[in-house]
Design a protein that fits this description.
Blueprint lengths: L7 E3 L9 H16 L4 E5 L5 H6 L5 E6 L2 H14 L4 E5 L12 E6 L12 H11 E12 L12 E7 L5 E8 L4 E9 L4 H8 L12 E6 L8 E10 L3 H10 L3 E8 L1 H8 L3 H4 L3 H15 L6 E7 L3
Parallel strand pairs: 2-3, 2-5, 3-4, 5-6
Antiparallel strand pairs: 1-10, 6-13, 7-8, 7-10, 8-9, 9-11, 12-13
This protein binds S-adenosylmethionine.
The site of S-adenosylmethionine (SAM) has 19 residues, from α2.
């Protein structure tokens, strides 16, 4: 085969102009109101600890766990810098929480932590949240809303190349379905193939945010498998409102209430009014959080769910 049989085009990278600060303001308000004056709070997948540090004045004690030690070190130095005494960070795995049964009033699972975990184990994670909660305690979940931007006709496949050495590249093909299941197939691009020659000829886009390490490509005709060596496969599961609620109900939780949020930002952004309205951002964010928690209705790119462990 010759390079002419390759039918690929580079997807131009757009700068990401989403102001995540607005979403974060809504999320903080939802969390402040939902957690309230809680006793012991566990944040599973706490990353750099921002949520517990934000809640520290309204809770008795917070423990953040994560598998990423670098992030935990950042969380700890931020805790020290702010002089927060009632929050601690430690290494821990969502699949096997190193705490006795019934030891927390609130557990948090925020920011797509589940997406990083094998989809066949999501039920076990929810089981662990349930186990460490005291009777009457609450689990608070937040993750992206698969039925927002991602409903069909969202592209079913993406392929991207990544530099792994001077003339070495890896390929990642992502396939997704309407249920939110994404399968990533990973490959090495074999040397001296027309595919490697094509990649070497490309100019790699540099996004305004950071030097891009990915070459995203539209695969008009599938790349011949003979030019790729498979190296692994992984799966990620994203949630829609209903299947998120089912996940927590199946884990034994009661009063599972899930809703979407983020609509104030998306409305203002799509209407091209961000600059005019930025003065009112905090008021809008607070009002959206208040309405969402009162009505348990809403729309937008993020899901928020509150579930109770029965007494
Ligand atoms: C996108 S971050 C979310 C951070 C934070 N919860 C927030 O909402 O701002 C996902 C975090 O989950 C952590 N994580 C992934 N797998 C985990 C596991 N099995 N147990 C605990 N944390 C995990 C990652 O290290 C990462 O810090």
């Amino acid at each position: 085969m010759t390079s002419e049989t390759l039918n690929l085009s580079v997807v131009p990278q757009q700068p990401c102009d989403v102001d995540f600060g607005w979403y974060e303001e809504i999320r903080h308000e939802l969390l402040r109101r939902t957690v309230g004056q809680a006793g012991r709070v566990l944040d599973v997948g706490c990353q750099r600890g921002g949520v517990l540090l934000m809640l520290s004045e309204q809770i008795e004690e917070g423990i953040g766990i994560d598998v990423a030690d670098e992030d935990l070190a950042r969380a700890e130095s931020e805790r020290q810098a702010r002089g927060v005494e009632n929050v601690a960070f430690q290494h821990g795995d969502a699949l096997n929480l190193a705490f006795p049964d019934a030891s927390f009033d609130v557990v948090l699972l925020l920011g797509d932590v589940l997406t990083y975990i094998d989809p066949t184990k999501h039920g076990s994670v929810v089981g662990e949240l349930y186990r460490v909660l005291k009777p009457g305690g609450r689990a608070v979940h937040e993750s992206m809303n698969w039925s927002w931007e991602y409903r069909w006709p969202y592209p079913k496949t993406d392929i991207a190349f990544k530099r792994a050495g001077k003339e070495r590249f890896t390929a990642h093909r992502l396939e997704r379905d309407a249920s939110g299941l994404e399968t990533s197939r990973d490959y090495e691009v074999l040397p001296d193939t027309p595919l490697q020659c094509w990649i070497l000829r490309q100019e790699w886009p540099v996004s305004p945010q950071e030097a891009s390490t990915w070459l995203e490509v539209e695969e008009h005709t599938p790349v011949p498998e003979a030019w790729l060596k498979p190296t692994g496969e992984s799966q990620f599961k994203h949630y829609c409102l209903d299947d998120l609620a089912r996940l927590y109900s199946a884990g034994g939780f009661r009063h599972v209430e899930a809703f979407a949020y983020g609509q104030t930002y998306d409305l203002v952004n799509r209407a091209g009014l961000l600059e005019q309205i930025s003065l009112f951002q905090s008021q809008l964010a607070r009002t959206e959080a208040e309405l969402a928690l009162t009505l348990r209705l809403g729309s937008g790119p993020w899901l928020f769910a509150v579930s109770e462990k029965g007494t």
